[in-house]
Amino acid sequence: MSEWRAIESAPRDMTPVLVWLSVPHQNSHVHTAQFAPNMPRGIIGGLFGFDLKGDPTHWMPLPEPPPQG
Known about the structure:
By secondary structure, the protein is mainly beta. Helix content is about 0%, strand content about 35%. Strands 1-5-2-3-4 form a five-stranded antiparallel beta sheet, with no helix packed on it. Strand 2 (about 15-20) and strand 3 form a beta hairpin. It is globular.
């Protein structure tokens, strides 16, 4: 598994990644996300591609999928 990286180094080309979200007054959590320049906050993710709630502070590449079969 990769190490968490500073959010400033995340790819900005719609590559899916994992992000660590800091959510005020709630538990922080991990989400899949994509950075999209055309979105108001520059990031989309979560179920159905909704704008994420919280501020991403770190990211890492998605793990390799499990073998098929």
